[in-house]
Structures are given as C-alpha cells and as structure tokens.
Design goal:
This protein has helices at 3-15, 22-29, 33-46, 69-80, 86-99, 106-113, 117-132, 152-160, 172-176, 179-196, 202-220, 238-254, 260-272, 285-302, 310-329, 338-344, 346-362, 369-391, 403-417, 432-438, 466-482, 511-524, 531-542, 598-609, 612-620, 624-633; strands at residues 54-58, 62-66, 137-141, 145-149, 395-399, 422-427, 443-446, 457-459, 497-506, 546-548, 551-552, 565-577, 580-589. The chain is α/β, with parallel strands linked by helices. Residues 394-484 form the PTS EIIB type-2 domain.
Length: 636
C-alpha cells in the first residue's frame, strides 16, 4: 500500500466504530472521492491478512473499520512500523529463513512487512534464485510454512553475503550485530594479522569480520559447523595457528565455547582471503601450474606476450593462491561486478574463459565465471599497461658521425616533420652503447649501420630524403597498428558475414535453441566442425554471453573453426539471456589466427551494444540487405 492508503487506515482506526463519509476522507487527504474509493478496494485486499478486519460501508452514513482488539493491535503496530524498501524486505526475509528455527508462513511475513501475500510470494521466488548459488533450497510444508534446507557451511556463506541479494550497498548486517561486537571482532583480527604477519587486504578484512560475527552468532544459536574429516589437513599451517589464537580470544571476549571445527573453518577463510602479497612460500605447486597454463593459453589466444609482464604475473600469483584455496575448500564466490565486466570487457572475458577451460582439463576444479571476471581485470590491466607503452611518444636517438652541424640539422628536420617523436639525444656511433644504458630509447635513426643493438634502427640519409621519410612513416604506422588490442575499423565485420548465415524474425523459446540453430547452420556451411555446436552450448550453459544493449555473442572453441564466420539471428521478441534480454545474436566462429581481428570484432559489437539507435535500425530492417548495410556502414 502507498502512504495515502496507510493514512486512510490511520483515520479509520482513530474513528473506532464511528463511520466517516468518503467526502470527508477525501478532504482530509486532499484528493478526489474517486481516488478514495479506489484506495478502499486496495485496502479490502490487504485487510484479508487480518481475519476479523472488514470495511463496513453504509450508504448515506459513511464507512468504518470493524476489527477485533488483537487484530487492531497488530494492524496498528504494522501501520507505524518503519516503511522499508523492497530491498530491505528481501534481506530481512532471507535473514529470517537463514536463522529462524520455525517455518515462516505467508500470512506471518505479510503482516510483519505490511504488504500483500502476493508480494511475499514474489520475494520468496527472488530469494530462492539467490539461495541456489549457495546450495540452499526453500521448502514448504502445508499448514506449517516455509523453511530453509541446506548445510550449515552454505547457510553461513549466505548470511555473510546477504547484502548482495539486493545488488546494492546496504548496512543490513551492521544493524544485526551490536557495535561492541563489531569493534571487538575487528580488534582481535587486527591483533591476529599483526601477530601472525598475514598480508590481508582491507576489503578481505572487512569480509572476515562479517564471517566471524556470523560464526559467533551461529554458535550462540547452537548451530555449529561440521567439517568433513577427510578434507585436506591444514593443522601445520601458519593460518591454522593464527585461527586457533583468534578463537581463544573470541571465547574469552564473548563467553562462548567454539568447537574445533570452527578453527578449521576460520583457517579456510584466512587461506582463501585476498592478499596484497604472497603469504606462504607457495609450496602449493598447483598454483604455479595453474598460472603457467593460463598465461601460456592467453598468449596463444591473444598473441600478447603476457609472460613479459612481471606485474601481471605477481598479481595473478597472489590472486590465484586465494582462488585455489577457495575452490579446494568449497567456498562460493560472488562478484557484484560480473555483469559490468561482461559488458565492458567481452573480448577479454571470452579469452579468459577459454584459458580457464584449459585449466579445468588439467586440474580437478572448475573456476566459475565470478572468479573468471576478477581474473579478467588482471589481464585487462596488463593490456592497458602495454597499450600505454605503445601509445607513448617514441623516444628517438639520432646517430650521426658527420659533425655537430649536420647532426643538429638532421635533428631539426625530424622534430619539425614528426612531432609524434621525442628526440632524446644526438650522438656519434661510438657513444650509442653508453647512451642507451642510461636512457630509454624506442628507436634509433642513424646515418650509418650500427652493430649489436637490439633497439629498432632505421638507416637514413643525412638530408632526410623522400625514401627516408617513407621508412619513418612505415614505422609509425606499424606502431599505431599494434598500439591497441582494440584497434578497429568501420568495415571490420564485413568480411566475416554472409547472407546465408543471417536469420531474421526468429522466435525461439530459449537461448540454447538460438545457439544450436546458428551452430548447426555454421556446420552445414562447412564453417565449423560438428563438435563446435556442442562445445558452444556447453559454454553458454556455463556463462550467458549477453553483453548488454540487447546483444549476445555466443561462441565456441576457435580450434574447431574451419573458416572464420559470423552467424546472426534477429529475434521477433526479446529473449531472456541470463540476466539480460537479447534481441540480436551474433554467433562468433573465429579461428585463433593472427590475421583474424577477433578482439576488434568483439570490441565493435560491444560498441554496438551501447548504441540503441543503431540496434533499433537493425531490428527494423525488413530484409537481409538492409540489415547488413546498417551493420557495416553505420559509424559506432
């Protein structure tokens, strides 16, 4: 109900059994009588939650609320309870399902939250979808109500992440726990980190505070965790010793007794938390092997020398150490940035997903897309560092042994005609080795050949003739061409599209039907191997490929592509595609060849997803020729 309808109930409660005219209600609320009568119909439905409540209408006399004392008291308290948002209601219901020992009825939840039971049903459906990621199920028993079924470990993980159910920042958990509880746990953790030298990030520390608060709460509620005794032994680790010390402090501060399994549980969290540096000497060879497999595969897929980026390797090593521990211990991971990463970096996500499939073939765990999205950020940062280096103004050394006058003349000519270059020095041939040891140089322009130099060198005439200028232009053009992994052109899609693989007015029931249809069309045209279709379906089941703006880009393993092609389906109605709605599907069958501009194509489609006008023009296209013309000629 809205605020005006709540005001009507407030007035009726204050009048008791005395009737009030609809006209008088309208005057008090500053609205029309028609509005009041419509509100009264809404209130009739809501008041069904109170068995004795009934709106009595007496023509010519007025209207009043008939209700017994108990229901009146309940309605009064519900009326003046803080008006919570739907997000707060979702979190509160989820929290009660996680912590209440008794089943919850629709009527009970409806009365507690001052909404109709249909809204509660919708809330429960939303909550169930969220619970599924934690292996939890809402079950219902007739005449008893709804209750939650699942393991204690999963319930704790859901409790710790409960604010994410609303996909927005909230302070719900801070209202659940007392300030002194939060301060006590944080103080103990600060001491533990200092004492046991655990390099935990501040974000990881905040998360750990919540996990420990949940641990204390669940222990007080007699809900201890039970660890499978066959799980990996970690008693001899530094984290285990830190966890044991931490639990001793918690027992003393909160006056509780924590089971031994809680020490193992906290150890898992310490080993799975994000660090800002490597904590162990990393005897865990599996982390090194995963990193090596990933870097090698990413280089093959992107033709970028990631192994040369020391910052990337160090960052990934720290991240993967926590990832492998989380996977080994079975901790679910949530990533609130997942959808944004899908939209912003579809190319990199595609490449990382392929590399993680290679990892899964070698190692006994499957890295989920939430983790993959975090890994994307590491590789994207590396790409941007490399781009920054390539975009930087080339630092040029001029080498000339024909005297200072000729050297200065040559320098002046280069500076005048090539302002995108920075001349860092002009030296004779004998000074080159000494100069490049103390200065960074990207290019040497020399009037004489130079031996044993690994820096690109262009030999020119001292007078900088036309042929010399062509050499310099080729160098700059080549540099610009490789300067960005997202370099593209308006016609980049044209060479990979065929009318026979464009399908208009498709009306599927599920996104898998679209992927299968396009994959089979590619196979019949001889563009892909038969197994490509199955592999693309598996990838789509694992991670929806919508990139926003009504666009999806399903794809399979590039090693199964015979001839690089893009198949397209235009849907008659938007189709649910993961958490997005999609109207145009581009199935990318692109072989992993250096000549194929895969990254440019995906970047182009990503740009399309941000151009609603062009998407509209494509959807309005009445024939294939018009669709292809809009797609290849439009500037976006």
């Amino acid at each position: 109900m809205n605020a005006r309808q709540r005001k009507i109930i407030e007035v009726l409660l204050s009048y008791g059994n005395r009737p009030i005219l609809v006209n008088d209600l309208a005057k008090q609320l500053d609205c029309s009588e028609k509005t009041v009568r419509n509100d009264l119909r809404t209130m009739d439905v809501y008041l069904q939650n109170y068995s004795s409540a009934c709106l009595i209408r007496k023509p010519g006399t007025g209207i009043y609320l008939e209700i017994n004392k108990r229901d009146k008291q309940n309605l009064f308290h519900a009326l003046f309870r803080e008006n919570k948002s739907s997000y707060q209601r979702l979190m509160e219901i989820a929290y009660r399902l996680l912590t209440d020992k008794n089943p919850l009825t629709l009527q009970q939840l409806s009365m507690d939250h001052f909404v109709h039971h249909t809204a509660i049903k919708s809330d429960l459906e939303t909550i169930q979808q969220w619970f599924e990621s934690f292996g939890l199920v809402i079950e219902s028993r007739q005449k008893l109500g709804h209750y939650l079924k699942g393991e204690e470990l999963n319930k704790r993980m859901a409790l710790a992440h409960i604010e994410e159910i609303a996909n927005q920042q909230a302070t719900f958990l801070k209202n659940v726990f007392a300030p002194f509880e939060i301060a006590t746990v944080r103080q103990i953790l600060d001491q533990m980190i200092e004492k046991w030298k655990i390099p935990m990030t501040s974000h990881a520390l905040d998360n750990l505070v919540v996990h420990i608060l949940v641990m204390v709460q669940r222990t007080k509620q007699a809900n201890p965790i039970i660890i499978d005794k066959h799980r990996l032994s970690i008693n001899d680790t530094n984290e285990y010793r830190a966890a044991a010390w931490c639990l001793d402090q918690l027992e003393h501060k909160f006056g509780i007794t924590l089971a031994h399994d809680e020490t193992i549980y906290l150890t898992w969290h310490l080993r799975g938390s994000k660090k800002y540096s490597l904590h162990t000497s990393t005897e865990e060879e599996i982390t090194h092997q995963v990193l090596s497999t990933m870097i090698e595969t990413m280089q093959q897929l992107t033709h970028v020398s990631f192994h040369e980026d020391e910052q990337l390797i160090n960052g990934l090593m720290i991240h993967l150490e926590a990832v492998t521990n989380r996977l080994v211990y079975g901790f679910p991971i949530s990533n609130p940035l997942l959808q944004d990463i899908k939209k912003m970096y579809p190319y990199m996500l595609s490449m990382v997903t392929l590399s993680l499939e290679k990892v899964s073939e070698k190692f006994p765990f499957d890295i989920p897309e939430e983790e993959a999205a975090y890994i994307v950020l590491h590789f994207q940062a590396s790409i941007e560092r490399l781009d920054a280096e390539n975009y930087a103004v080339p630092r040029v050394l001029i080498v000339c042994d024909m005297g200072i006058g000729m050297s200065r003349l040559l320098q002046a000519k280069v500076e005048k005609q090539y302002q995108e270059m920075k001349i860092v020095g002009t030296v004779g041939k004998g000074e080159v080795q000494r100069f490049i040891k103390r200065e960074q140089v990207h290019l040497i322009i020399s009037t004489t050949p130079i031996e044993k130099i690994n820096i690109p060198t262009i030999i020119i005439s001292p007078l900088l003739e036309a042929t010399d200028k062509e050499k310099l232009q080729r160098f700059l053009k080549k540099k610009a061409g490789r300067s960005s992994v997202l370099a593209t052109s308006p016609q980049v899609l044209h060479d990979f599209m065929e009318e026979e693989l464009l399908f208009l007015n498709i009306n599927p029931q599920h996104r898998f039907q679209v992927v299968e249809m396009l994959g089979n069309a590619l196979y019949k045209q001889g563009k892909v191997e038969k197994s490509y279709v199955h592999q693309a379906l598996l990838r789509e089941r694992k991670s929806a490929t919508a990139i926003g703006g009504g666009i999806a880009i399903p794809h399979g393993d590039p090693t199964l592509v015979i001839a690089s092609t893009i198949a397209i389906a235009v849907l008659t109605e938007p189709l649910e595609w993961g958490k997005e709605e999609v109207s145009i599907v581009f199935m990318l069958a692109l072989a992993n060849e250096k000549a194929n501009p895969i990254k440019a194509i995906i970047h182009k489609l990503s740009s399309l997803s941000n151009d609603p006008m062009t998407v509209r023009d494509l959807l309005n296209a009445t024939d294939k020729q018009t669709f292809l013309r809009v797609l290849t000629e439009k500037e976006w």
